[in-house]
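A further point concerns the way the authors explain their paired sequence and structure data. The central task, working out the structure tokens from the amino acid sequence alone, is never made concrete. I therefore recommend that a typical entry be quoted early in the introduction. An entry of this sort, consisting of the sequence and the corresponding backbone structure tokens, reads as follows:
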Amino acid sequence: MAEARKLRVAAAQIAPDLDGWAGTLDRVLAAIAEAASKGVELVVFPETFVPWYPYFSFVHPPVLTGAEHIRLYENAVVVPGPVTEAVAAAARRHHMVVALGVNERDHGSLYNAQLVFDADGALKLKRRKLTPTFHERMIWGQGDGAGLKVVETAAGRVGALACWEHYNPLARYALMAQHEEIHVAQFPGSLVGPIFADQIEVTIRHHALESGCFVVNATGWLTEEQIARISPEEKLRKGLRGGCMTAIVSPEGAHVVPPLTQGEGLLVADLDMGLIVKRKRMMDSVGHYARPELMSLLLDQRSATPMHVTADPSTSLSGNPADERDDTDRVADGAPDQRIAVLRSAAG
């Protein structure tokens, strides 16, 4: 249960540096310092902000995106690495929780990753977007359930989802069931047009109401010069404007401060954490308003890995002898599979 306390948070709507990861990192560090000067305890940056969101994949066909895709690989973030070390140091120096979206490179694949650093600089969460959206599927691999969790931070219990993951009710419910107090939402911004901004607003306000938590959402921004650089065709540039809805929403579904939909800026708000209990007293969707005996969620939080190594045949797939058991004897709800028992008795 959230304490009746105040928490100052911020959401950054700024443009990346399209020339390289170092320039974008400099902008992240500058925004963290600015937030610290305002007394901010948690700051959120846009989706895959470092080095930049792959806008090129939205306005150009795949056959024309090879060079830009390779450049994204060359500038992507390795975790851990120079980017995470610099952000961790800034979080520790300013005693601030930092939520950062990055293009993560893991050997030959890129992922849409969300990183949450605690106020002591520790990386508390690294998760990957479960299902990239439409054009993004040519850019990123898929995430898994290992990162679909809420973490304890100096700012409270924090969960995170990226962009259209908010259209996945089961993913949202997984975080709600873990009692998130602050939900980090990240979208690209400067995409699709005003309709996208409207959809973002509806989505994050609904999640705040349904989960009874605060939502801190950051969307990115592109300058006109950057838009022209991404696409020389004016017809295509129209798809790279609008779509910004940097906002901070209360558990009652209301904007804590007016949202930022144009230009660069740092949106700052003071959260009354007591509003969480006020909302959940009326409607706790994973508590007194739930019916788990009728409907519940099964979440597999194992990391997806392409290879399992066993030392000998008696060792489990996890590589841990303590886990030795025949998983085929179990069904999803953990009850013995009676069909196997019957087959075994017949064989004996």
Notes: The first helix runs from residue 21 to 37. The first strand starts at residue 6 and ends at 13. The chain has a mean pLDDT of 91.
